[in-house]
């Protein structure tokens, strides 16, 4: 099966990016607004975690960045994409490092990713409006990150058992 | 079927929850009711408005418009031309550590205490 390794991975990446984008859209139209900026489920992260576990960090990052930029253009506005991007990059890097330790399950990795995502966003947000007072949102974002991360992580580990592994040509 | 959680996950969860509780304690303890709403645009102070006077403040900058309404001692972003409307959904604020942020329009409303604000804490 040598012939389709690289091409296959690119095709799967594109498909994953499209899937992540759809999840972003679903999230954008779901009437789940809590009134607190930054508190959301992060359904698209499901796809990113699966990519991280089944492909590698580089592919997962590619999928993530494409998803955020396109979602920014389509739904949230590019300004919003700026801080999504910070959250996404910080979150994925943390998840990658935790996964490398081998100590944590997918749910644990996802939980840390959820928290890291919110922290990254908050850092950029406070830098943009140049005010550290925004850190009053920290506890709320911390707990919502934990809850959303665990939930998405559990779903990801259940889905991961059922994803056909030969899809990710090595 | 693999186990969904590992031991290290619970340790991490406990650590994160403890940090969260510590942060909440800090923010709850440092809160007191404020005296004025300070509006900042692009990092520069636009104006300070007393919370005891009911009023409506209109902020216009680079084609963006935000309206802030002060009523019954609290401030609320009642209108914004931004796309995500997060600022409008934030609701009313009245405590010193609260703020409303409209990132797309770079408008921020913060509550500040008046003179003698520290007496209540001390």
SSE string of chain B, helices as H and strands as E: HEEEEEHEEEH
User: What does the oligomeric state look like here?
Assistant: heterodimer
SSE order of chain A, one letter for each helix or strand: HHHHHH
Q: How many individual β-strands of chain B?
A: 8
Tally of individual domains of chain B: 1
Main sheet of chain B? 4 strands, antiparallel
Mean pLDDT across the residues of chain A is 86
Report Rg of chain A: 16 Å
The percentage of residues in β strands of chain A lies in under 5%
CATH architecture classification of chain A: Orthogonal Bundle
Q: What about the largest sheet of chain A? A: none
Question: CATH superfamily assignment of chain B?
Answer: N-utilization substance G protein NusG, insert domain
> How many beta-strand segments of chain A?
0
Q: Distance between the terminal alpha carbons of chain B, to the nearest Å?
A: 57 Å
Helix content of chain B: 25-40%
If you had to describe this structure to a student in words, what would you say it looks like?
The complex is a heterodimer of chains A (170) and B (122). Chain A has 170 residues and is mainly α. Chain A has a single domain, classed as Arp2/3 complex 21 kDa subunit ARPC3 (Orthogonal Bundle). Chain A is 75% helix and 0% strand. Chain A has helices spanning 5-29, 45-54, 57-76, 78-101, 106-128, 138-162. Chain A starts with a helix and ends in an 8-residue tail after the last helix. The mean pLDDT of chain A is 86. By secondary structure, chain B is of the alpha+beta class. Helix content of chain B is 27%, strand content 39%. Chain B has 3 helices and 8 strands. In chain B, strand 1 (36-41) and strand 2 (44-50) form a beta hairpin. The longest helix of chain B is centred in the N-terminal third of the chain and has 23 residues, at 7-29. Chain B is elongated. At the A-B interface, helix 4, helix 5 and helix 6 of A face helix 1 and helix 2 of B.
């Amino acid at each position: 099966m040598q012939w389709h390794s690289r091409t296959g991975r690119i095709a799967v990446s594109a498909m994953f990016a499209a899937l992540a984008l759809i999840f972003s859209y679903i999230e954008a139209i779901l009437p789940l607004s809590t009134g607190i900026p930054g508190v959301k489920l992060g359904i698209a992260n499901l796809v990113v975690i699966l990519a991280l576990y089944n492909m590698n960090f580089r592919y997962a990052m590619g999928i993530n960045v494409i998803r955020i930029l396109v979602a920014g253009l389509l739904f949230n506005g590019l300004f919003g994409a700026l801080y999504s991007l910070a959250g996404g990059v910080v979150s994925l890097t943390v998840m990658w490092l935790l996964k490398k330790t081998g100590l944590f399950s997918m749910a644990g990795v996802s939980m840390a990713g959820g928290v890291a995502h919110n922290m990254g966003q908050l850092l950029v947000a406070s830098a943009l409006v140049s005010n550290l007072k925004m850190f009053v949102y920290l506890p709320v974002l911390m707990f919502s990150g934990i809850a959303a991360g665990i939930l998405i992580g559990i779903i990801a580990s259940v889905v991961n058992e059922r994803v056909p592994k030969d899809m990710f040509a090595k | 079927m693999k186990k969904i959680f590992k031991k290290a996950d619970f340790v991490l969860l406990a650590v994160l929850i403890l940090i969260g509780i510590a942060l909440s304690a800090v923010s709850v303890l440092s809160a007191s009711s404020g005296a004025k709403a300070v509006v900042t645009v692009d990092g520069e102070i636009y104006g300070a408005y007393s919370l005891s006077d009911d009023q409506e403040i209109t902020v216009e900058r680079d084609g963006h418009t935000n309206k802030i309404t002060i009523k019954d001692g609290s401030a609320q972003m009642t209108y914004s031309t931004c796309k995500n409307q997060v600022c409008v959904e934030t609701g009313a604020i009245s405590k010193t550590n609260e703020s409303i942020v409209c990132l797309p329009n770079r408008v921020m409303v913060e509550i500040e205490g008046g003179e003698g604000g520290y007496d209540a804490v001390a």
